[in-house]
Amino acid sequence: MNGFERIDAVLNSRSPDCVPVMLHNFLMAAKEYGVNMAQYRSNAKLIANVHIAAVEKYCYDGITVDIDTCTLAGAIGVPVDFPDDEPARTNGVRLERLKDIRTLKPIDISKDKRVNIWLEACQRLSKQLKGQVFLRGNCDQSSFSLAAMVRGIENWMIDIFSAEDNKYVFEFLEYCTDITGQFIKLMAQTGVDMVSNGDSIGGPEMVSPNIYKEYVLPFEKKIVNIAHKNKMSYLLHICGCVNGILDSMLETGANVLELDYKTDINLIHGKCKDKVVFCGNIDPSGVLAMGSVEDVKVKTSELLEIYWDSNKFILNAGCAIPSSTPPENLKMMIHLARNFVVQPNKA
After folding, report:
1. Residue 336 within any structural domain of the chain
2. CATH no. for residue 136?
3. For residue 277, is it within any domain?
4. Domain housing 100
5. Long-range contacts made by residues 131-134, C-beta under 8 angstroms, separation at least 24?
6. Which of 173, 213, 247, 295 lies 20 to 30 Å from 54, alpha-carbon distance?
7. Under DSSP, is residue 256 helix (H, G, I), strand (E, B) or coil?
8. By mean pLDDT, which of 70-84, 151-165, 208-222, 270-284 is the weakest?
9. d(Cα 76, Cα 176) in Å, to the nearest integer?
10. Cβ contacts of residue 113 below 8 Å, gap of 6+?
């Protein structure tokens, strides 16, 4: 099997010839290619070349095309900083008062320069690697997290916890759902095999499980539906420990849940192994970036042994892999996956 075939098998409840690997490694890949973040985010051809070079070097199965976490916020009008050596980041808010939501005009993000760089990079990768390497086009933030960036996280938390009338909160979330949905629809036309979003501000490290169910889950469901209507598999990523919302995340309809190392792997296995594909969850900093090769071997082997009885598993770090990660650590993780075959029929 090639990389595309392995991940496609997992998504369709078939057993691959070994555990597939899909990396979220744009920071490391850019550094190894010899470009900084300013160069990377500004040139679609360069983004494609960075990922092609990385997949040729490490021979993994799936590419995650990512640039930063504030492209959509910037398209809405949030001030954004562009450090040379780090991903772009927000530096202010667009909406000073929640009740001013109706002053936000409809936006066609297909006209945004940075969105188009992202899309063109995916088109280039699809043209060169389609059917050989699995392509995941990340689509920035889901509704709740995008709203937090537009309002500012502190303001958004106050909006949620103090709202006597939720009509503005839900109206704003609908607005953000439209923006994220536009990105998914555009990404679906590039030739990628899967789309994804992050929604970590909607996770338990920021809000309670009850808040998640009321304000986050309904809009994640809408985003998943948009992806599926556009014939795309969908991956949802939430950082941190999601033990308290894992059951609710299963309700989103996402094909894949990408979960952080802080979430109990035995809980993940028990709840997900027969229901949804799990992607993760080696510690990207403590193990991959700062650990030894032996540390990586131990942690990866532990994870593989837990998931030995399920073909709904893609190996990855729990979040973006730091640029400082030693190549030998990444090679060890991939080597172990290449030599491990799941046996779901023997469980």
Report:
1. no
2. 3.20.20.210
3. yes
4. 3-328
5. 131/2, 131/4, 132/2, 132/3, 132/4, 133/2, 133/3, 133/4, 133/55, 133/61, 133/62, 133/63, 134/3, 134/4, 134/6, 134/7, 134/8, 134/20, 134/22, 134/61, 134/62, 134/63, 134/193, 134/194
6. 295
7. strand
8. 151-165
9. 9
10. none
Q: Dihedrals φ, ψ of 322, to 5°?
A: -60, 150
* Residue whose entry in the numeric block shows the structure tokens 């990768």: 125
Strand order across the 256-259 sheet: 22-23, 62-65, 134-141, 194-198, 233-238, 256-259, 277-282, 313-317
Task: Report the candidate in 194, 207, 175, 211 with the shortest Cα–Cα distance to residue 258.
Answer: 194
Q: What is the pLDDT of residues 250-302, one digit of tens each?
A: 999 999 999 999 999 999 999 999 999 999 999 999 999 999 999 999 999 99
Q: Is 216 contained in some domain?
A: yes
User: Which tens digits make up the pLDDT trace of 10-64?
Assistant: 999 999 999 999 999 999 999 999 999 999 999 999 999 999 999 999 999 999 9
Beta strands in the chain (DSSP E): 22-23, 62-65, 80-81, 89-90, 134-141, 194-198, 233-238, 256-259, 277-282, 313-317
Q: Can you state the angle between helices 143-151 and 153-162, rounded to 10 degrees?
A: 110
Quick one: tokens of 178? 């439209």
Tens digits of residue pLDDT in 93-102: 999 999 999 8
pLDDT confidence of 346, banded at 50, 70, 90?
low
Burial of 161 (0-12, 13-18, 19+ CB in 10 A): exposed
Contact of 28 with 13, CB cutoff 8 Å: no
**28 in Cβ contact with 285 (< 8 Å):** no
The residues facing 302 across adjacent strands are none
Could you give the number of structural domains in the chain? 1
Residue 342 domain-assigned (yes or no): no
Q: Which residues contact 210 (CB under 8 A, 6 or more apart)?
A: none
Instruction: Look at the block and give the residue holding tokens 């690697």.
Output: 129
Which pLDDT belongs to residue 162? 84
